[in-house]
Amino acid sequence: MDDLKEIEALRQELTQAGYEYYVLDNPNMSDYDYDHKLRRLEELEAIHPETVTPDSPTQRVGGQALEAFTQVTHRVPLESLQDVFDFEELEAFDQRVKGVVPEADYVVEPKVDGLSVALEYENGLFIRGATRGDGQVGEDVTENLRTVRSIPLKIADAPPRLIVRGEVYMPKKVFHSLNEERERRGEALFANPRNAAAGSLRQLDPKVAASRKLDIAVFNVQFVEGETFSTHLETLDYLRDKGFKVIPHYSCSQVAQATEHIAEIGENRESFPFDIDGAVVKVNNLSQRETLGSTAKFPRWAAAYKYPPEVKPSQVVDIVVQVGRTGVLTPKAVLTPVRLAGTTVTNATLHNQDFITEKDIRIGDTVLVRKAGEIIPEVLSVVLEKRPQGTQPYEFPKICPVCGAPVERDEEGAHIRCTGAECPAQLLRNLAHFASRDAMDIDGLGIAVVENLLGANLVKTPGDLYFLKEEDVAQLERMGKRSAKKLLAALEKSKKQDLSRLIYAFGIRQVGQKAGKILAARFQTLSALQRATLEELTAVDDIGEITAQSILDWMASPQSQHLIQRLEEAGVNMTAAEQGSDRRFAGMTFVLTGALEKFTRDEASEIIEARGGKSAGSVSKKTTYVVAGEAAGSKLRKAQELGVPVLTEDEFLELLK
Question: What are the residue numbers of the active site?
Answer without folding.
Answer: 111
